[in-house]
């Protein structure tokens, strides 16, 4: 995440250093491009977080099942929810 911020800052600084906006239209286009980049990165991060949450949920489900199986093998009564 920090690397993305540095990368984005470096990109925007290099763009501004070589392509100073000459008018409002160029500045508007630059800002829109920057906002789109930020939105894309945010969406990518959101997708990654949701995927990890889903994976964690599956692991928890597997763990609960394995604990239930172990309790059954050990002859311990489990409490159902």
Automatic annotation (TrEMBL):
Location of region: Disordered: 1-20
An annotated GO cellular component: nucleus
Chief localisation class: nucleus
Compositional bias segments (type: Polar residues): 9-20
InterPro entries for this protein: HS1-bd
Coiled coil feature spans: 46-73
Keyword Coiled coil: yes
Signal sequence, renumbered to the chain: none
Keyword entries, A-Z: Coiled coil, Nucleus
One Pfam family linked to the record: HSBP1
Family recorded in the similarity comment: Belongs to the HSBP1 family.
Function per UniProt: Negative regulator of the heat shock response. Negatively affects HSF1 DNA-binding activity. May have a role in the suppression of the activation of the stress response during the aging process.
Official protein name in the record: Heat shock factor-binding protein 1
């Amino acid at each position: 995440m920090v690397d993305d911020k540095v990368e984005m800052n470096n990109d925007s600084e290099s763009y501004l250093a070589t392509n100073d906006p000459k008018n409002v239209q160029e500045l508007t286009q630059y800002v829109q491009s920057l906002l789109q980049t930020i939105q894309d990165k945010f969406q990518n991060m959101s997708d990654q977080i949701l995927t990890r949450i889903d994976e964690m949920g599956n692991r928890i489900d597997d763990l609960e099942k394995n604990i239930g199986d172990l309790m059954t093998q050990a002859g311990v009564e489990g409490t159902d929810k």
